[in-house]
Amino acid sequence: MTTTLTATSTGEPTAAIDRASARSFVDAHVAPDADAWDRAGRIPEAVLEQIAAAGLWAPFLPAVHGGRGLALSALGLLHEEVGRACSSVRSLLTVHSMVSWALMRWGAPEQIEHWAPQLAAGRVLGAFCLSEPGAGSDAAGIATTASPRPGGGWTLTGHKKWITGGQRAGLFLVFAHTEHSTVALLVPRTAPGVRVTPIPEILGTRASMLAELEFQDVPLGPDALLGPSSFASGAVLSGTLDLGRFSVASGSTGILAGCLEACARYTTARSVGGTALRELQLIRAKVSDMVTDLRAARLLCAEAGRLKDQCDPATIMATWIAKYFASTAAARHAAEAVQIHGANGCGPDYPVARMYRDAKVMEIIEGSSEIQRITIADEAYREWTT
Ligand SMILES: Cc1cc2nc3c(=O)[nH]c(=O)nc-3n(C[C@H](O)[C@H](O)[C@H](O)COP(=O)(O)OP(=O)(O)OC[C@H]3O[C@@H](n4cnc5c(N)ncnc54)[C@H](O)[C@@H]3O)c2cc1C
């Protein structure tokens, strides 16, 4: 697959990065060690630097801020390629992209000038901080608060959990309640009162360096607020989640592609009773279902990406559907990929066990499958009963 990533929605020069180059980067620098990183529970610093050198952290940022002006449809293709090899790296790219995109979309010029070049170059990594010990699907249930400080600014107090990249990120996009609304705040890791505790041994995306964050009366200036104070911050939250969902849909499509590749290789090499697995009809049925669902997931992601490039609000529902389909298909086929590998699928020598664990996580993050079904059905009834 050599689709060229040339589209740009920002008028910036066409980016010199394409799906083929992303694929070679991933094959050379990500795929060979993804299982080792999974076992170690982290991505080595040298790899984070290689990702920066390849321009992959936030290539959609405008060239004037150090990005490549890449269209979001093209970003989806990149995240599929990375997800094909390593969902932990793709997860880090997802949350970094969410923070970078929210900054560009709603940041004041000074905020953009300060943070965008650092995010584009990967000198600072971003993390998205919504979930808490007592609130996940129910975003309105968060207990973190931002109280106005005399003379301007905010005091941030609260506890965030399951924060991808939290162990390593330098900039946290934190959602908190004020007396009247919800705000999105840019919180540097170095701010006084920020405490980071690693979460080890998560089921999937084990190398994505998850953390719990505690904010103990963290003093923030007025410049921490993303978007004007009168602004309905729900738009920041839903817009940022939509981008994350698109990235996870693309990454889940990548898991499907990774499972298919692994199964094609394995069933060609492995024989039972003198017959190659690939000649068995039941195996071929599983492979053909993978091929079909991979094609469908790609088309759904492509539609969501195209609508994003056109700034069409229909992208929101297209992204829900793409993420629901791609993540559930990835989980289903990753389970079959393990089955096809037999005991080898349960051991450390083949990537499908990792993909199986990673795929399960995709059904939970960025809107669980249940929440997606509720949302998709709501939309269906709006469309067909009014
Ligand atoms: C690996 C990993 C990485 C993560 N990274 C981040 C991150 O970077 N930033 C961040 O903010 N969060 C992150 N999360 C948290 C993630 O967003 C939440 O886990 C997710 O939103 C679900 O919330 P919850 O776990 O609290 O489940 P709950 O909201 O408690 O839901 C529990 C179950 O009930 C179901 N459910 C909930 N409401 C309904 C309903 N109305 N009807 C039917 N069923 C329902 C859910 O689908 C789920 O199956 C991460 C989680 C994981 C596992």
What does this structure look like?
It is a single chain. It is built from twelve helices and nine strands. It is an alpha+beta fold and 386 residues long. A four-stranded antiparallel beta sheet has the order 2-3-7-6, with no helix packed on it. The chain has a three-stranded mixed beta sheet with strand order 1-4-5. Strands 8-9 form a two-stranded antiparallel ribbon. A hairpin with a 5-residue loop joins strand 2 (145-148) and strand 3 (154-163). Helix 8 runs antiparallel to helix 9. The chain is globular, with a radius of gyration of 21 Å. Flavin-adenine dinucleotide is lined by residues 95, 128-131, 136-138, 162-164, 202, 205, 210, 361, 364-365, 368, 370-371, 374.
Give unreliable regions as ranges.
Answer: 1-15
The small-molecule ligands in this entry are: flavin-adenine dinucleotide
What are the secondary-structure elements, in order, as H or E? HHHHHHEEEEEEEHEEHHHHH
Given helix and strand content, the structural type is alpha+beta
Q: What's the number of helices? A: 12
Cα Rg: 21 Å
Largest sheet: 4 strands, antiparallel
The outline comes out as: globular
- The spatial strand order of the largest sheet comes to 2-3-7-6
Helix content: 40-55%
Into which percentage range does the β-strand content fall?
Answer: 5-15%
Distance between the termini: 42 Å
The average pLDDT is 93
Q: How many strands?
A: 9
List the keywords.
386 residues; disordered N terminus; four-stranded antiparallel beta sheet; alpha+beta; binds flavin-adenine dinucleotide
Write the layout of secondary structure elements.
Elements: H1 19-29, H2 34-40, H3 45-53, H4 72-85, H5 87-106, H6 109-120, E1 126-129, E2 145-148, E3 154-163, E4 171-177, E5 182-188, E6 194-198, E7 211-220, H7 234-269, E8 271-272, E9 275-276, H8 281-309, H9 315-341, H10 343-346, H11 352-362, H12 369-385
Parallel strand pairs: 1-4
Antiparallel strand pairs: 2-3, 3-7, 4-5, 6-7, 8-9
Helix pairs in contact: 1-4, 4-5, 4-7, 4-8, 5-6, 5-7, 7-8, 7-9, 7-11, 8-9, 9-11, 9-12
